[in-house]
Amino acid sequence: MNRLTFTTLLINFALGLKLENVTVPKYGSLHGWVKLYCDFVMDADEPLLVLKWYKDGHEFFRYSPNIQPNILDFPTAGVHVNVSQSGLNHVMLRNISLQSGGSYKCEVSADRPSFRTLQGTGDMIVIAPPAADPEITGIHPAVSVGETINANCTSFHSQPAASLMRRLARFANSSQFLSPTGWRRPSWGCTSSWNLATLNMAVWS
């Protein structure tokens, strides 16, 4: 009889709190929004005590079913919670900034008798594309046959820095990627890149 009782308790414990999936978008767009998902199942005899979200180790969201208000959010750099669009299984982050990138963790804790806690994590990178096409300087309207041209191609601020590619429109196989020779990081965090390319080219009539 004791052996049967032990087996039953073990099965009940195994069917208690189960964290199925934590979904964090791999990329977020600057000034946009993202949703984080935390999917779990509970047993009727082991209800939810609290659910918490963290960014880089700092708690920014808490859902407590037995406390009013159920939802609390806490000031955290780079995190702006849309409380009206957030709930038990998901959190919406609005006004994504470069500081929003990092590691996010969902932590789920069961109530008595186990008080068990499970957690899952995911990382997000914030993408900020260039606001305009690259600028090319150093190209003169007229050149001589065989003349060497020193051209400077500069991309606008982006995160991560843009990859630059040069192409001579008159040659089908002239495209190649360039490794930026310089970087500049403005005060607001994004990066611009530039490359100085030397081209030996012939002039066609």
From TrEMBL:
Top-level taxon in the UniProt lineage: Eukaryota
Is Signal among this UniProt entry's keywords? yes
Write down the SUPFAM superfamilies for this protein, in alphabetical order.
Answer: Immunoglobulin
Q: Which InterPro entries match?
A: Ig-like_dom, Ig-like_dom_sf, Ig-like_fold
Instruction: Tell me the ranges covered by the Ig-like domain, including all copies.
Output: 34-119
- Entry coiled-coil feature ranges: none
- Secretion signal span: 1-16
Keywords of the record: Signal
Q: What is this protein called?
A: Contactin-4
Originating organism: Folsomia candida
